[in-house]
Design goal:
alpha+beta, disordered C terminus, about 425 residues, 4-stranded antiparallel beta sheet, 8-stranded mixed beta sheet, Pseudouridine synthase, 15 helices, about 20% strand
C-alpha cells in the first residue's frame, strides 16, 4: 500500500534561511555549460606506479552516473573498481580525477586506451598504488557566469559575497543532493523502512512528489500496472526508473525491483535523508543568528582535522574561543544521523532532537536494517577563499562573473543563493530572491 503524504511529513529539503539581509540581485546560472566551470583541486598527485589508472577527465553536460557507466563499459570493470573524490554537477564543464583498478592489464596499452566520447575529454593518465576515495580532494575552484542580470549590479554581488568572507558560508546541501523532483530524501526514508511498494510509487508513479508534465503518460501506465507500456518511455537519464520498471516488467516482486537499482543509488538516497535533517537544523541555527557562534553543549568542528570536540562551560569561557571562530579554525557542527554519530548537549541537542521529532524520525531508523548508515558531523559553515567578481558582455549577452574556492563537500549554488536568490539552482528569479 502506498504511504500517504500525511505519513511522510518531510518538507522541501532545500535551504530556507538566508544569511545575507540585503535583497538578492536575481539572475540565472547554467544558461549554457560553459557558464559553469568546476576544477577539482586534488589532495595528492599520482606517484606514477601501481595497479590503479588515474585519469583526469573534463566532462560537458555529463551526469556522474553516466560517466561511471561509460568507464565501466570501456574498461569492462565493475562499479567497485572505479574511484572518485567527489561527484560533479551534470550541467557545466567540470574537471576531476577518477581511478580504475586495472592490475592485470598491459600498462602501455591500458594507459593510452581511453574512452572516446563527444562530451568527455581525457587530459592525462597516470598510475598510482591506491584507489581514489571519496573526499580525497582539497576542494573545488568555481568560475560561474550569472546571466539575466544587470552587470552594473556586480558591486552589490561583490559586497554580499565579501560579507561571507567574515561570517562563513552556510554549509547547506544544495539541490543537486535531492534530485530534480526534490524527493531523494523521501526515497531514502522508504529505503530505511523497507517500504518497497511505496518507494516505487514515489519513483515511478504520479501519487508522490511533483513530476514534470512530459512524464505523465509513463507514470500513468505505472499506476495502472501497465509496466510494459511504461518501460520504453523512460530515457537514459532515468537510470533508476528504467532499471526498476524493467524488473517489474518481468513480473518480479517490488523488493527485487528496488534492490536491482543498486546499493550505490539506494545508499545515496539514504544520505539525502541525512542531508535533509542537516539542512533543517542549519535553517534553525541561521534563523537564531547563531551560525558563527558556539553554545554550551555544541560539538565544535576543527576544520584542519575534520574532528569535533565538545564545548563545555570552561571552553566557552576561554577568551581564545572567539579568535578561533573568527580565524575559521573551528565552527559549530550539525548532525548526519546514523550509528556512531557524536551527540551534542544543551540547546544544540534540543534543536536536533526537535527536528527529528518534527519529521517523525527516530535515531534508530538510521542504525538498524540492511541499509543502516554511519553517522557523522558536518560543519554548519565553511570558508570561501580566492573570491573574484567582475562583469562584462560576450556573444551571449551581459553577465556577472564570480570565481571562488570552496572546501570539499560544499556547494557553489549555496554561495550564489546568498547573492542572487533561488536562481542559483539554475532557473530565473525575480529581484526579491528567496527568503
Amino acid at each position: 500500500m502506498a504511504v500517504s503524504d500525511a505519513q511522510l511529513p518531510l518538507n522541501d529539503p532545500l535551504p530556507h534561511a538566508r544569511l545575507i539581509a540585503a535583497p538578492a540581485t536575481g539572475g540565472s546560472i547554467k544558461e549554457r555549460p560553459e557558464d559553469f566551470l568546476v576544477d577539482e583541486l586534488p589532495l595528492y598527485e599520482p606517484c606514477g606506479e601501481g595497479e590503479h589508472l588515474y585519469l583526469r577527465v573534463q566532462k560537458r553536460n555529463v551526469a556522474h552516473n553516466e560517466l561511471m557507466s561509460i568507464l565501466q563499459q570501456h574498461y569492462k570493470v565493475g562499479e567497485a573498481a572505479i574511484g572518485f573524490a567527489g561527484m560533479k554537477d551534470k550541467v557545466g564543464v567540470t574537471q576531476q580525477t577518477v581511478s580504475i583498478h586495472l592490475p592485470d592489464r598491459e600498462k602501455a596499452r591500458a594507459d593510452t586506451d581511453v574512452p572516446t566520447h563527444s562530451r568527455l575529454q581525457f587530459l592525462w593518465t597516470a598510475r598510482h598504488a591506491n584507489k581514489l576515495r571519496r573526499g580525497h580532494l582539497v576542494g573545488n575552484r568555481f568560475l560561474i557566469r550569472i546571466r539575466k542580470v544587470d552587470p552594473l549590479k556586480a558591486p552589490a554581488v561583490h559586497r554580499q559575497l565579501t560579507s561571507l568572507l567574515r561570517t562563513g558560508v552556510p554549509d547547506y546541501y544544495g539541490f543537486q543532493r535531492f534530485g530534480y523532483r526534490r524527493n531523494n530524501h523521501r526515497l531514502g526514508l522508504h529505503v530505511l523502512r523497507g517500504e518497497w511498494t511505496a518507494l516505487l510509487d514515489e519513483l515511478l508513479g504520479l501519487r508522490g512528489s511533483a513530476s514534470p508534465s512530459h512524464q505523465r503518460e509513463r507514470r500513468e501506465f505505472y499506476d495502472a500496472g501497465q509496466y510494459a507500456e511504461s518501460a520504453p518511455l523512460w530515457t537514459r537519464n532515468d537510470r533508476a526508473e528504467r532499471v526498476a520498471i524493467g524488473v517489474l516488467r518481468r513480473g518480479a516482486a517490488h523488493r527485487e525491483a528496488v534492490l536491482a537499482i543498486g546499493r550505490t543509488t539506494l545508499s545515496f538516497w539514504v544520505s539525502a535523508l541525512q542531508s535533509y535533517i542537516f539542512n533543517e537544523v542549519l535553517d534553525r541555527r541561521i534563523n537564531a543568528g547563531l551560525l558563527d557562534q558556539l553554545l554550551e553543549g555544541d560539538l565544535a568542528w576543527k576544520h584542519d582535522s575534520r574532528r569535533c570536540f565538545p564545548i563545555d562551560a570552561a571552553e566557552l569561557a576561554n577568551p581564545e574561543l572567539g579568535d578561533r571562530l573568527q580565524a575559521f579554525e573551528i565552527s559549530p557542527s550539525g548532525p548526519l544521523p546514523g550509528s556512531g554519530m557524536l551527540t551534542p548537549g544543551g540547546e544544540a541537542l534540543r534543536n536536533e532532537t526537535e527536528v527529528m521529532a518534527a519529521n517523525g524520525l527516530a535515531p534508530e531508523l538510521f542504525e538498524q536494517g540492511p541499509f543502516a548508515t554511519t553517522g557523522s558531523r558536518r560543519p554548519l559553515r565553511v570558508q570561501i577563499t580566492n573570491l573574484e567578481v567582475d562583469s562584462g558582455f560576450d556573444e551571449h549577452g551581459p553577465y556577472i562573473r564570480v570565481a571562488f574556492d570552496l572546501p570539499r563537500g560544499a556547494y557553489a549554488t549555496v554561495v550564489l543563493r546568498e547573492a542572487i536568490g533561488a536562481g542559483a539552482e539554475g532557473g530565473d528569479v525575480g529581484e526579491e530572491g528567496r527568503g
